[in-house]
Specification:
Blueprint (H helix, E strand, L loop, with lengths): L1 H13 L11 H19 L13 H6 L2 H4 L2 H43 L11 H28 L1 H11 L14 H26 L7 E2 L2 E2 H8 L15 H4 L5 H7 L17 H6 L26 H16 L2 H25 L3
Antiparallel strand pairs: 1-2
GO molecular function, one term: iron ion binding
Keywords: Lipid metabolism, Membrane, Oxidoreductase, Transmembrane, Transmembrane helix
Membrane topology: Multi-pass membrane protein
Amino acid sequence: MILDSIQNGFIEQFVAPFLPSKSLFYLYLGSALLISTLTYIWFSYREEANRPDGISKGLWGYIFDKDVWLHRSARQDYIFFVVNALIYHGILAHFLISGHVAFGAIDNGLVFFFGVRTQPFFEPSLATTIAYTTAVILAVDFAIYLTHYIQHKFPPLWHFHSVHHSAEVLNVITVFRQHPVDLFFTGTFIVVLSQLAFAGFTYMTMVKPTEILILNVNVVLFGFFLFGYNLRHSHIWLAYPAIVSHILISPAQHQTHHSVDPKHFDRNFGFIFAFWDWLFGTLYVPRGFEKLEFGICREEPNPYETLSEIYILPFKRAWVELNSSEVRIRSVVAIAASAIVGICLVLFAFAN
């Protein structure tokens, strides 16, 4: 089962343009191309100081700028995409199992604390479907915000996350430039919180909840993918009005997150929604076009020279961090807390 999942997932990575559940689905790429064209037209009428440098290269040169798409960092992205596909879907196979464990644990926990339901709190209806559709996307989005915040603030995890930030140019494949440890960490939180929503609604309605779907994709996620998701990792500047930027993360906001400018450090951790950043004081809203440089920092934008370094160097640097007394104490506390939560989940999962 697991090997089949890995094999099928690996193949899916390369037929993604035909799968609506993938960010590289042709409809999402097509909409990104259309939006890019509109931004080109918009900036063509702006003063040179307030527009991207690539505008002078014409529409084709602006969107498919060879200085971006053929950059050494971009070539790393392409290689990493291929090699990481197998590892990535091996991790996903793990989540197929952990999802069932998480649901069982949460479901048994609800029964333990609140008793066995004999009647539903709410009858399944359009309202509960809308509520669950909203709840599950909020759960996933908050999981991504929370793990992203931790990855930046906890030094050992930062070294794994720095692989993603080491991109010196951004393109649609850069999103896959993630260390397996990063993927595992974020994925675990997503599984637990999304299963919390699923188990909670199952408990309250006594039937498995359903989402509002478009092409078998959560309607909110579908809209997010359709309206500019693939520009988040790109050189195409697309900013939203300030009021919208407090609710939704624009591609420009995520691009500033990748900036080497210290004023952008540890800002805009959100995936879909910006209100997490607003709520926790990590929001940055651009007031106009900003010319950005990307990388980890100005002094060392990309320390990874080879593919092996991308995988191995973060472990070495994380180990050095763990050997410092302050970080070691925080690590022991974090590991102990994780172990306790994990043990509780397993016990509840198999309680019946």
